[in-house]
């Protein structure tokens, strides 16, 4: 169970004008602006749910994921995941979560993928028998047998993302955070990732939180959608709720991407 209650997070960002004179002035007198990334955010996610967590750029999605994974500490509010506070019980917490960032890698760039996996086995202290079983299953399901001996830098984007997903699941986490997992992938790779995530949820009961701008990912994977904008939760419902709230003037039906765009404009969160 993931429980988020009245969480707020503010960043202090330095501002200055362009040019050498402004840069010199900033050495002695700095101007800051406070950015409210999260503002009284609350939601609950049950075990085994698959959630689409969506919103425009700068809405607060990444800040939420970083707090849930224990990377950031909120200014106020509380978060518990299976009874643990992520930023207070980090060592125990990371053993039960997996994180995939579509634009960041947890694999070492210049060594074969299997060597990265061995390092992760040591980091997570995975028992050898469990590691071998999980690796065999992931290798088969994600078709990794031809990739394990290849350095990460020589993989295509689609191949690397399959390896990244396997890396996040080697320790059999109960909760999986997917941040833009299919960004830049071709249609075949996207479908393969979606099918695997669905199977992981069905067979292992893995709780999945998906943040993405790809509405096909959302509609294929998530039965429930949480919409965040300007740091606030604006909608917690289904894909049908998104279509209804984002319908064109007059109520005529529209495709999902257009419905989302209409909803963002109506809520003034672009």
General description of the model:
With 270 residues, the protein is α/β, with parallel strands linked by helices. It folds into two domains: 2-96 and 174-267, P-loop containing nucleotide triphosphate hydrolases (Rossmann fold), CATH 3.40.50.300; 105-172, no CATH class. The chain is 38% helix and 25% strand. The protein contains ten helices and nine strands. It has helices at residues 20-26, 61-68, 90-94, 113-124, 128-141, 157-169, 187-204, 215-221, 239-245, 256-267, and strands at 2-15, 31-45, 50-54, 76-81, 97-101, 175-179, 207-211, 224-229, 232-237. It has a six-stranded mixed sheet with strand order 5-6-7-3-8-9, with helices on both faces. Strands 2-1-4 form a three-stranded antiparallel sheet, with helices on one face. Strand 8 (224-229) and strand 9 (232-237) form a beta hairpin. Helix 9 packs across helix 10 (256-267). The protein is globular and about 55 Å long. The two termini are 31 Å apart.
In short:
With 270 residues, the protein is α/β, with parallel strands linked by helices.
């Amino acid at each position: 169970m993931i429980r988020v209650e009245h969480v707020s997070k503010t960043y202090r960002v330095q501002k200055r004008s362009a040019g050498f004179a402004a840069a010199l002035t900033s050495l002695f007198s700095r101007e800051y602006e406070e950015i409210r990334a999260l503002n009284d955010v609350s939601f609950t996610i049950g075990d085994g749910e698959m959630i689409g967590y969506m919103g425009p750029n700068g809405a607060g999605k990444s800040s939420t994921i970083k707090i849930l994974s224990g990377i950031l500490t909120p200014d106020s509010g509380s978060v518990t995941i299976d009874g643990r506070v992520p930023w207070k019980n980090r060592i125990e917490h990371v053993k039960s979560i997996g994180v995939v960032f579509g634009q960041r890698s947890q694999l070492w760039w210049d060594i074969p993928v299997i060597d990265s996996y061995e390092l992760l086995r040591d980091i997570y202290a995975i028992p050898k028998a469990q590691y071998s079983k999980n690796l065999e299953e992931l290798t088969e399901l994600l078709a990794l047998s031809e990739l394990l001996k290849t350095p990460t830098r020589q993989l295509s984007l689609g191949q690397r993302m399959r390896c990244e997903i396997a890396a996040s699941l080697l320790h059999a986490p109960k909760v999986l955070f997917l941040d833009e997992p299919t960004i830049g992938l071709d249609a075949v790779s996207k479908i393969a990732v979606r099918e695997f995530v669905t199977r992981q949820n069905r067979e292992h009961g893995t709780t999945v939180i998906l943040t993405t701008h790809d509405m096909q990912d959302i509609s294929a994977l998530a039965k429930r959608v949480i919409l965040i904008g300007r740091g606030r939760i604006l909608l917690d419902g289904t894909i049908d709720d998104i279509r209804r709230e984002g319908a064109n003037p007059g109520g005529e039906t529209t495709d999902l991407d257009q419905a989302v765009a209409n909803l963002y404009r109506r809520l003034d969160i672009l």
